[in-house]
Automatic annotation (TrEMBL):
Portion annotated as DNA-binding: 29-48
Domain of life, source organism: Bacteria
PROSITE patterns: HTH_TETR_2 (PS50977)
UniProt protein name: DNA-binding transcriptional regulator, AcrR family
Matching Gene3D superfamilies: Homeodomain-like (1.10.10.60), Tetracycline Repressor, domain 2 (1.10.357.10)
Domain HTH tetR-type as annotated: residue spans: 6-66
Cross-referenced InterPro entries: Homeodomain-like_sf (IPR009057), HTH-type_TetR-like_transc_reg (IPR050109), HTH_TetR (IPR001647), Tet_transcr_reg_TetR-rel_C_sf (IPR036271), TetR_C (IPR011075)
Keyword terms of this UniProt record: DNA-binding, Transcription, Transcription regulation
Length: 182
């Protein structure tokens, strides 16, 4: 199988994510992606055997949901920047519609393996904690995933489930609650 041009692959991923945002997972079809991306559906099926596989790849590899771990020079700064990024992901279109529709669908559709999305993100987020341990800001025994889950969960609860606005000081307050305790 010859490699697909990166630009063409991004067009397929973009079409996939925009369709899931507009129509939900149930309305996502490979035919719809083919029509929107201008790529033959047999070509898409050659690379991704199902819509679940296609969406799973798009979640991890799309530029739309691209993610780089912040490096501000301090654990607190990195975590505040990370929370600000999660807030943007869940509140600013088109990423917000995509993230909520696709990751929400993963709950109802086990064939859509969103674990890869979270594992890929966490592998990048882990750098924040490794740097903090090296700088002496954090004990090596601290569980980075617990901290990420607490912070990301707070953003999901506030924005998606409660539908409340996130104030400018929310990221700093959430990080302070974790690092300083309440």
């Amino acid at each position: 199988m010859s490699p697909m041009a990166p630009r063409k692959q991004q067009e397929i991923f973009d079409a996939t994510l925009r369709l899931v945002a507009e129509k939900g997972y149930d309305g996502l079809t490979v035919e719809g992606v083919a029509e929107r991306s201008g790529v033959n559906k047999t070509t898409i099926y050659r690379w991704w055997p199902s819509k679940a596989a296609l969406l799973g790849a798009a979640l991890v590899e799309s530029d739309v949901l691209g993610f780089e771990a912040p490096d501000t020079g301090s654990l607190r700064g990195d975590l505040v920047a990370l929370v600000e990024g999660i807030v943007r992901l869940l509140t600013e279109p088109p990423a917000s519609e995509i993230a909520v529709a696709a990751l929400g669908a993963a709950v109802r559709h086990p064939e859509l393996d969103a674990r890869r999305f979270f594992a890929d993100r966490f592998a990048r987020e882990r750098e924040i904690f490794e740097r903090a341990v090296r700088r002496g800001e954090l004990k090596a025994s601290v569980d980075p995933m617990l901290i990420i889950d607490l912070l990301a969960g707070a953003v999901w609860m506030r924005t998606v489930f409660r539908g409340l606005p996130v104030t400018d000081d929310f990221p700093g307050e959430a990080v302070a609650a974790i690092l300083d305790g309440v």
